[in-house]
Amino acid sequence: MGKIERPDEGVKSPSSALVIGAGISGIKTSIDLAESGFNVYLIDESPFIGGTLSQLDRQFPTNDCGMCKMLPYFGSEFCSDLCLRRGLDHPNINIITNAELKSLNGEPGNFKTCLKKKARFVDPEKCIACNLCVDVCPIEVEHDFNQKLSKRKAIYIKYPSAIPCVYAVDIENCNRCGECVKICPTKAIDLSKEEEEIKMNVGAVILALGFEPFDPNEIGALHYSEFQNIVTALEFERLLSGTGPNMDRILKRPSDDQVPKKIAFIQCVGSRDEERNYCSFACCMHSLKEAMMVKELYPEIDVTIFFMDMRAFGKGYHRYFEDAKSMGIKFVRSRVADVQGEDNGNLIVDHVDEFDEPKHETFDMVVLATGQNPPKNAKELGDILGVELDRYGFCKPMKGCAVETSKPGIFVCGSFSGPKDIPDTITEASAAAAMAGTLLRREGYKEEKFDDNEFVKKGEALKEDRVGEEENESIGIFICKCDSCLGNFLQIDDVIKFAKSLPDVDFVESIDFLCLELEEVQKKVADKHVGKVIFGACAPYPFEIKFKKILASAGINPSLLEIVNLRESCAWVHDDKQKATEKAKSLIAMANQKLRNQEPLSISSKTVAQKALVMGGGISGMITALNIAKNGYAVDIVEKSSDMGGNTRNLYFTIDGLDAQKLLKDVVQEVENNDLITVYKNSEVKKVSGKAGDFLVELKNSSDQKKLQYGVIIIATGADELAPHEYLYGEHEAVITQRELEKRLNEEKLDSKAIVMIQCVGLRDDERHYCGRICCSQALKNALKVKEINPKTEIYILYRDIMTYGFAEEYYIKAKEKGINFIRYELEDKPKLSVKNEKLDVMVKDLLLDEEIHIRPDLVVLSMGPSPENNKALIKVFETKLQLDENGFFSEANVKFRPVDFLSDGIFVCGLAHSPRTLIESIAQAEATTGRALTILSKNEIFAKRVVSEVNERWCVGCEACIIACPFDARILDSENKVAKVVDALCQGCGMCAVVCPSGATKLKGYKEKQVMAMIDEAVV
Hints:
Blueprint: E1 16-20, H1 24-35, E2 39-43, E3 93-96, E4 99-107, E5 110-117, H2 132-136, E6 140-142, E7 151-153, E8 155-156, E9 168-169, H3 179-183, E10 196-202, E11 204-207, E12 212-213, E13 230-232, H4 233-240, E14 262-269, H5 283-297, E15 302-307, H6 317-326, E16 330-333, E17 336-341, E18 347-352, E19 358-363, E20 365-370, E21 372-373, H7 378-385, E22 410-412, H8 422-437, H9 452-463, E23 475-480, H10 484-487, H11 492-500, E24 505-511, H12 518-528, E25 532-537, H13 544-553, E26 561-565, H14 567-571, H15 577-596, E27 605-607, E28 611-615, H16 619-630, E29 634-638, H17 660-672, E30 677-680, E31 684-691, E32 694-700, E33 705-710, E34 712-715, E35 720-721, E36 735-737, H18 738-747, E37 754-758, H19 775-789, E38 794-799, H20 809-817, E39 821-824, E40 832-836, E41 839-846, E42 851-855, E43 859-862, E44 866-867, H21 871-874, E45 907-909, H22 919-937, E46 941-943, E47 949-951, H23 961-965, E48 971-974, E49 979-982, H24 992-996, E50 1002-1004, H25 1009-1020
Parallel strand pairs: 1-2, 1-11, 2-3, 11-22, 13-20, 14-15, 14-20, 15-16, 23-24, 23-25, 25-26, 28-29, 28-34, 29-30, 34-45, 36-43, 37-38, 37-43, 38-39
Antiparallel strand pairs: 4-5, 5-10, 6-7, 8-9, 12-21, 17-18, 18-19, 27-46, 31-32, 32-33, 35-44, 40-41, 41-42, 47-50, 48-49
Helix pairs in contact: 1-8, 1-22, 4-5, 5-6, 8-22, 11-15, 12-13, 15-25, 16-17, 16-22, 18-19, 19-20
């Protein structure tokens, strides 16, 4: 955990930002700010950070975890590069738990804040997470992490790898018996602690409070609390989790611990109703994920999902829906009216199908897909900050920007501004970081790195005391006793005796509490003049960074450290003391062999060209350029046409009334007036080579060609509207697109009496497995505009699923109220358009009436999404391995946690080049790419990792297998010598190159064959 700093009251600290809420959005915005050179105070009212995301096992549509994907790739060696489930340590981030904001005054760039920090009753600097306090605590309460499906003690860690990994006392349930105080070996517990005030000055505030799950008890017909086998989606997630109440992946229903045979998922619980007239964004996909997990574990279980519209509108989501159907999951389009219980624990689901037929079906379990509500303290915080909330209680962003609130200097991201899925939350988090950065003074990234020259200097100083000796290869070993946590389970003296017998070991010392006696350890390392060190302690991830700093301060390269986990890997996993002891010996012997064959690993660096290239002069590209320029960096925009604006030139108004043409005019004018922005019109990028921080780009127009250098590249090239090849488009003048209709409405050239709009034209079919995302809102927007102009116009919208996610649901309801007719059709029975007696005739099967109907409109409007065809040509410009997804949009590094990054670092994507999205969503992505770009542009140098691959050029045959396999473009071919080379600054040490190398020429530094084989020999002895 980062150190808690408390600036003196009244001291101006415009380099710092306050982030309120430490869920996924708060963590991400903090990382981006920290990586861009700003200080961050990340606060949360809980004793632990992570929010709802910490309770989720897998993420759709990839069904992997992927949380580690959002951690910085370029950063200090002394930042955590581990999974966020295990640690978050950054020199620029100060984590303050159990804290809430009490007051805020001042102005953007200089806010005075006051926090109230409740007592944790456990000192984070002394707690060693030994679990002894839990063993003696007599109080058991319901465990919130497992949604009250299991118990925990009054002193607890939220989950095994919680952040911080330090115990906290639930003082409301604690009986203050003091048993934990008596047994704590480090005297870390003090039940008399009181809350404190922390005052600080910050330049910006970011609200990342997340959401509160809807309480299904508010819907009496579902009888949630009456029947044990009715659970919420989050409760079901915990039941399926390996860290859940069952501590395995065996699904048991709560009433009798039996594996259910039939499960029903009920959608829209607490969403899309009269009180909460919005869609909760992620529920459909969350249920699909859980249903698929059930089918993977138990193919024989019968799974049914009751839904209204299957809103699979995100990137890759429609394909995910198709995969779910292929697994045998049943889908029933119906809103459930009532759930009743039986004596045996089974449940009867009453519903009316889409043909208005009442149905009754029995299930073993029912899962409620509960919606997202505003956090409980939203109104109180809104009053303190003076920010506007909407009628539901969510924070209301300013029109035209997803992350600006009604109060300057205060920004919002994630579900606090409305229901969100993870990619949109991550996008807004990066966007908020970029916007907040414009108010802060950049003090520079705290690169806590001892460079190789410093190690040499310190090493030479130590050598003077040992004149005539050979290179110092001696090894020092520190064994942590960790009180009884090791002593009761290991024969410590036996382990120490064994360690002393190992080759090259100069000394072995036992320490009572290694993590608490770091200064003493540092002194002994220096006094003993050892060259390499082994720490035998507990799980390395909470302490690895501290241990590395000890060695670095003593002049020892951190790569000459090995940490052996004697507690979690030995003491706590064996019942037999002798077996645990033998395992401890084996692990220490393996570490010894690894170090004996370990040479100091250096870190290379490269200078960053602090200038950005934006490819595309549409609204996304221009917003990106403006925000980068506002942060003080030069930007070039390359636009292939003679006009700026891209697709926004064809957009006149948004569904919520934003004047798109005024926005475009203002943005273009601002770009033209910004001295840091250079625009190249009628120009194209012909070739891109190089790497993050140092790209060489060839630009060309009709009369000139030049080569320029950039630190980052943003792809904002947009997409074209899909060209329809059906429904008589291009053959009949009364068949037009939504874009053409919008233009007529803007010019007031529409006098139609009957209009038919056909949705999903050319999409969600066998050729294109994606949803256009914007098409439904576009149709509703235009239909409502038509009704505004002429209320008597008959409008029919023929649809498959209405994708009005989030607050767009309000316009769906409004359209119904205005008399707009909605007729659903199936893909297998699409509408047919013909001309009869010189008039258009639309035939569609009405599923409610179960019969074909004919509509005779004087205008047919086709709804299509964007087409990514141009991306195929663009990808050839890059020497790096940019990829397209199966639909032709650019593939991001991770669909959930790195939605605007590529695997090739330093290149980012936003807007329609990424995927279909609305104007506001494109702007948010543009701001997000700014936040991501600044994490590179703000650095003078980018440092490589220590553990990177290397090539033995004598063995390399130049086959390029490693170049093809490398996912990070960290391999190049030396064309002159015909051998592979490693770009250290890009290499992430994944080892893929070593796996595919046919000649054994490629190895990972620190994992050479000699080392690995020596370790294996020790392990099997």
